[in-house]
Structures are given as C-alpha cells and as structure tokens.
Amino acid sequence: MASKNLILVLQAEQAFIHNFNTKENFAYEDSILFSAISNSYLPLLNMLRSLEGDGVPFKLGLVLSAPLCTLLAHKSTKKKYLAWLDSMAKLGEEEQERNKGNEAILRNVDCCLRNIRKCREDFLETYSGNLIQAFKDFADKGFLELIPTAATYSYLPHYRDLKEALNAQVEVGLHSHRSFFGENGEGFFLPYLGWTEKLDEVLRSYGVNYTIVDTRSVLFSKDTPETGIYSPVRTKKSLVIFARDFDTPDDIRGNAADGQPQGYMSAPAYRCELRDIGYELHDTKFMDFMETDSSRLQTGYKYWANEGIYDEEAASAQVRLDAEDFYRKKLEKLEKAGQLLGDKDNVLTCVIPASLIGDSWHEGVAWLEQVIRLVAAEGKIHLSFCKDFMDKQFNLPKITPYPCSAEGSGYGENLLDSSNSWMTDCIRIASERMIDLTERFPTETGIKARILNLGAKEVLLAQSAEWQKMIYEGKLPEYADRAFCSCIKNFNMVFDSLASNTVNTEWLCRMEKEDSIFPWLSYKVFSKKR
C-alpha cells in the first residue's frame, strides 16, 4: 500500500553578525543572536525533549548554517548570553514593581520573567551551554536529520559562471558541518532554494545525494514529471530533487499577493512581537537596563496580543486550532496526490524558516509540536527524512530543474536590485581576484598562507547574501553595509599586501581573531580543480 510522507525541514541561518568584544556593553549584534536562542533554539530543543519523553515518534530536518553554529559555539557567547538574561531578569523585577497596579499586564510580566529564568536554567543546566551538542544528540538518536548548507549562505546562482566560487561555498559548507556535527550529511540545503544550471554537477562532485528546490524548479522544467512535486526526482547527474510545498510559509505568515493576507501568526490571540517595552520605556529606564546609550533593542517583555492584552490561555487554544488546520490541509494534499499516483508513495516537503517559529511568532514552536503530535496520533501520515528516499536514487525520473528560487517573486530579484547590486559587482571582482591568487601562490606556507587564508575567509563572508537581503528589507541596513564593506576592505588589504610582499602581522593577528569563523580554512578551496 502506498504511504503518505510528510517531510518537515526547519531552516536556521544568520549572517555573521557578532560582538565578541566582552569589554563592550550589549549591542544589537548580541540581541539578534540572544533573541533567537531564547525564542527559537531553546524552545525547539525543549520541544524535542518533550516529544522524546512522551514517546512520540517523529522525524525533523534541520539546517544550521556555519555562521550561526560559529556564533553559538563561540567561547564568549555563553558568558554574554547569561549576563544578558540576568539583565533582563532584573528588568523584569522592575517591571513587576512598575505594573503592580495592573493585574492583566502584571500577569504577562510574570510570564515573561518566568520564561527568561527558564531560558537561563535550560541553557546552563539542561544543555550545559552547548546547543550544538544538544542538536547533535537528537540527530544521533534518529530524531533529527542535520542538513549542510553553503558556507556563508551565499546565493549560488550569482556565481554560476565562477565554478571555483561555487566549489568554495559547497566545500567549506560541508567541512564546517562535519567540524560541528561529525558527519557530512547526505543532502545540501540551497540558500534561498536558489537553483542554477550545472549546480548538480558541483554538488555531486562532493558526494551530495539530494537537495530541495522551489516548487517552480520542478513544475516549470521542460520535462515536468508525472508525479509533480509529490515524489522526488533526479537530475541528469542523479542528484535527487525534492520540491518544497509552495503554501507552507504562507500558511504561517500570509501572502497578500497570493490571496492569503493573513497567516496563522496574525491571529488576534497571538502575542504581538512588534510591541516590546524596549521600544516604549522611558529613555532613563531603558538606558539603565542596557547600560548604554546605543539604539533601542528588544527586551523580550511583550504584553500585547495582535488585538488587546495578551492572554496565554487564548493563544494556546488558537495554537490547537491552527495546528489542526495545517495538518488537515497537508493530509488533504497527500490524499489527492495518492489518488493520482496509485500505488506510488507520495511525499510532501515543507520548508519552514526557523525565524518564523519563535522570533516572529511566539507560539510557533508550540504550534509545530501540536502538528507533530497530531501526525503521530492519527497515523495517516508518516514523518520522514529526505535521506529515507535515497534507496531509489538511481531509479527516479530525470528532469532538468528550472532556474529559480524561493526569494522575490521566484527569481531572487530582491537580492540583485537597485539597492544592493553594487555589492554583487564588488564581490564578483574580489572572488575573481581570490581565484587568481590561488594560481599565483599555489603552495604557500607560513605567514603568507595565513594571509591568503584570511583573504579567502573575507571573500566567503562578503559572498553572504544576507547582506543584500538586509539592505533590501531595511533590516539594519547600515550594519549590513558596514560589515560588507569591511570584508571587501580586508580582502583588498590582503591583495595589496601580497602585491607589495609586505604583511602587517599585527593587523593579520587582529583580523584572524575578529573574524574567527572557519579557523581550519585553506585558501586552496578557491583553486581550480584539475
């Protein structure tokens, strides 16, 4: 009998935004990571523990990008995150005093303060400050499939004519995944699901067996398979292709352009993530909390729902309704596909940005847990990994995927528009120069190899499409501009140093410490493969 398979993949990435200087006070570099830890990663780990403890069978795919893993694993993160939680707990105690005359608000203050204290307990005691190891443990138990991705979440179609740049992003991404989790993984998650011609050739050369693409890549191919998106297919190089369910992100966030103006997260009962006391407190109180006069930051103290004052019980009731709705929609899709596919197993692949469940939608992790529990309780759908279908790898129908992505209107145009196209020009020149340097200095060692390694690292960091996306969306555009320009400036310093055969060792040591990602990196990843 044909089986109905649901693949759930959570995709978590972050630009290499950091503030490793422990002598400085908290800044927005810290708040982005720390908010994600509190709102997404710790709740996700707690969900996995809860499901395991209750004996609920489940499988979940998870993408953790190399910059994110580096930030989570950095030695300063644990100390600064705990100090950040302590400051927020102190603020919570002051908020209890400030709102003691308002019972409804005070109830939410107490809830936020409990969550902060629980985050501290979970981070320090349950997971010993090592979230990477905690995720690895669940993968070792067979609950998670950890999927590698590109080194710095670069939009790969921008480098389709620079094979060495594509090789570097794939090779470093796989090596980084192995350094954090001890294994390569069978698949490779394309940043922004960006597909371009001959990408399968690059991925297969590194032993990658599958990837996930946008729905249009399969449906718009000139050899569209009979099974549509409900069964994996393969490319001419036998790279297995899974097409994502087009509706899933919109189910959550809505999409007015596609007739879904409101997703689950817009329900009136859910907590409003845009209203935080960090934006509303009197300046003096805010400065006391942050111990700085920098930009206002989120604190985690949010008392309002999308409509009215937040009520945790009402939100929990809405979570159950929305989980049921999502489950029924996916079951209906799989049942209709089953009627057309007959005795063939059918598969629906749902890719969910991790930022949506937690950071953008406070109740998102609870919703995901309810979905998983519903699937297990009803037994009509099997939760599966992508790698579970590799036994049929060389018998799947062949297609030529259509070049598109999950960004913009399907072609990543927001990553190359008038606001950020200048960045692509700069990074392509730097990439070409880095490739040329590997030809000019093929076997360097010592300090010259170190500066070449730094140059390769700066190019990889500049290639991150997160900078373009941040500028396009207006999300910390000044920081993205500054970070990108710093990478280009540092690479130019490397290039000029090699041209003049002089190296500023003090500067080199400082930059190696500041940009501490990929400490094992060899510049030869940009060399032409013979």
Report on this model:
The chain has 530 residues and is an alpha/beta fold. Helix content is 50%, strand content 8%. The protein has helices at residues 28-53, 66-73, 75-98, 103-126, 131-140, 163-181, 199-205, 215-219, 248-253, 277-280, 283-290, 312-341, 364-378, 421-440, 446-462, 466-473, 477-500, 505-514, and strands at 4-12, 60-64, 144-147, 187-188, 210-213, 233-234, 240-243, 346-353, 382-383. The strands form 2 sheets. Strands 1, 2, 3, 8 and 9 form a 5-stranded parallel beta sheet that branches. Strands 4-5-7-6 form a 4-stranded mixed beta sheet. Strand 6 and strand 7 form a beta hairpin. Helix 14 (421-440) runs antiparallel to helix 15 and helix 15 crosses helix 18 (505-514). The longest helix has 30 residues, at 312-341. The termini are far apart. The model has no long low-confidence stretch (mean pLDDT 91).
List the helices and strands and how they pair.
Layout: E1 4-12, H1 28-53, E2 60-64, H2 66-73, H3 75-98, H4 103-126, H5 131-140, E3 144-147, H6 163-181, E4 187-188, H7 199-205, E5 210-213, H8 215-219, E6 233-234, E7 240-243, H9 248-253, H10 277-280, H11 283-290, H12 312-341, E8 346-353, H13 364-378, E9 382-383, H14 421-440, H15 446-462, H16 466-473, H17 477-500, H18 505-514
Helix pairs in contact: 1-5, 1-13, 3-4, 12-13, 14-15, 14-17, 15-17, 15-18, 16-17
